[in-house]
Amino acid sequence: MIEHDKVRELLALAAAGALTAAEEKQVGEHVRSCVSCANELDAWRPIATELRRLPTPQPSSWLLQATLARAEAKLADEAEHVLNRHIIIFVVTLAWLLTIASWLVFDFVSPYFGSLLGPQFGHTWIGFAAFTALGWLAGGVAAVMLAVRQRGERRLA
Amino acid sequence: MAVDADVARLRRGDLNALSELIARYQYRLYRYLLRMVRQPAEAEDLFQQTWLKVVEKVRSFDVTRNFDAWLFTLARNLAIDHLRRVRPQSLDEPLANNEDCATVADRIPSGDFTPLDTALAAERRTHIDEAMAALPMIYREALTLRFEDGMKIEEIAQVIEVPVSTVKSRLRRSLEQLRSALAVHYGEAWR
After folding, report:
1. Which of A88, A96, A116, B178 falls 20 to 30 Å from A106 in CA-CA distance?
2. What is the mean pLDDT of residues B165-178?
């Protein structure tokens, strides 16, 4: 009786083809000797068959093209982000190089080269720091303005 | 060309590979999403979102994994998020029971291939389709992946990220509920 109940539980899955080899063997052997389970298995089979025969719903004809278009836009967007990141890294590196180079040039042409490091020329240091900060600030404002404009153009597109 | 090769090309940003993958999976994926959300417009939107997700995440896709399972898992997560947002109750509850419209014709099982029987077979499928749509989401999902998509139990377990034993239990319960719903139309005359 325990065997019968156990197999009974497996009959729906047997029709679904979802049993392990051992379970399949167990069910096969049982239904050969149990009319009730054999009938029950027969009742499950047409349901499984009809489920496999359900018509496949058709998506709209434009779906593939629309999906591709959106994916293409996304890929282009990602590529642009990567390019922008590289450009920013390049520009920042270049800006630092120019700052350092201008400092060296400044050092070279300055008649007070030796005294620049002295504490009495602290004002020169402050001036140079302010000049650098102003340059970077202007660069930052320009970058933000460009980004805002680019975002606006993208939204309009 | 094999799916793996298309996936490798897509990882390099090749849009033709994406086109081939979408064409290859469009019916299966759309059907799965439609069974999940039951609304064609929502299924189509989720279909597009799924492929955008594929484009976004394909570089982090573990190539040793099964692409089918990964794709359907992405689609499933999107569908569940969507259902949680739009119709949270639909994740647990079935639709209202269909009206009992059993007629004499409804109760005639098909077996031959006369025009009448063909029509009745089509009607039976409509009833199955309706009965399936009325099941809770997790049961619809188990049925469509096993019977319509032909996935193995282990593959279904990967997609829905549960143990094999849970898949089996959901499959059995879904079949039992489906059979009960169909009994309204056909009684035990399914043979």
Report:
1. A88
2. 94
Per residue in B103-124, pLDDT (tens digit) is 333 333 444 456 776 777 778 8
Residue A13 is nearest to which of B47, B51, B172, comparing CB atoms?
Answer: B172
Interhelix angle B15-37/A63-109, nearest 10 degrees: 130
Higher pLDDT, B1 or A63: A63
**CATH classification at residue B143:** 1.10.10.10
Are residue A68 and residue A20 in the same domain, yes or no?
Answer: no
CA of B85 to nearest chain A CA: how many angstroms apart?
A: 23
Q: Is residue A57 part of a domain?
A: no
Same domain, A36 and A85: no
Distance from CA of A150 to the nearest CA of B (A): 22
B27 touching A (Cβ < 8 Å): yes
B133 has a pLDDT exceeding 50: yes
Quote the CA–CA distance of B85 and B175 in Å, as a whole number.
28
Note down the domain range covering B46.
Answer: 3-91
ipTM score over 0.90, yes or no: no
Q: Is residue B97 part of a domain?
A: no
Is the model's pTM score more than 0.90? no
How far from B85 is each of B52, B89, B91, B135, CA to CA, in Å? 19, 10, 11, 20
Range of the domain at A38: 2-52
Which chain B residues have a beta carbon less than 8 Å from that of A72? 15
d(CA B150, CA A35): 30
Do A142 and A68 lie in a common domain?
yes
Q: Rounded CA gap, A50 and A43, in Å?
A: 12
| Among B31, B150, B167, beta carbon nearest to A57 | B31
**CATH number for the domain harbouring residue B44:** 1.10.1740.10
pLDDT digits (tens, 9 = 90+) for A133-150: 877 788 888 888 888 888
